[in-house]
Fold this protein.
Amino acid sequence: MNCQDIKNRVGIRVVLESFNLFPVKENQRTAFYFALDREEKVPSLAVNFMKNTAFDFGTGKSYDVISIVQIINRCSVSAALRYLSRFDFSLLNSEEKIGSVVKKQYEIIKIIDIKHPALIQYLQSRKVYEQQHLVAEIHYMMNNKKYFGIGFKNSSGGYEIRSKYSKLCLGKKDITLVKDHRNSDKEIILFEGFFDYLTYRAINILNDETADYLILNSTAMFFKVENELFDYNKIFLFLDNDDNGKKVKLMVQKKYKNVEDCSILYTDYKDTNEWYCNLEIKL
């Protein structure tokens, strides 16, 4: 597959998402992202989903999917092509061009309680089956094929989909904020992914039933809650022990007061759920 084939067939949204980059503002055809090569408070990178290109108003540079990979990975064209070749082109684009109309390539068929044996087994393998009431079984169509997975709803009505074989988002990417009206102490517990939230609910590590819960669904979504976190008196962090998780942790510790890093509980593991799955219960 040559450069032009990849430029035409690999969706720019999916490439950006592979680097944990998500739009700050968007509509069906265009979106604004933060710049690829610098930090900024006002997003200046305009992405045109119809043309599959991006334009940086701050520098005047134009990008396609290949040059995006090049600037982020600081690599050659050939290395960028190798990076892009990993994608399954039949499932990449969440939108396709039909004349001047944008048509979604997925459709949610039904949302039900968890019933499928494969999903039950998956939840059991992650030790969070008892929290199945916090998620749903989502059946959906994508590229004329039927799929199903565990769905966790975000604050924009989209669903994070997980199964043994899939990890994607149907609909708009967003955080999930679960509020408790009894939370008079104004405490919030912050997670990176929803399986860590389910894990916390399974073991109730802090024995606190009246806190609010914030699930980022991606560290790239943190910008959406930066101002809202100032409303809380105490912030508990259950972030991943990887580069992105550590970066957000340092940002929160620097910006807010009364922050408790709970990752000390799972120092030798990637996240709360991995630690819990490897925990030997001593009677």
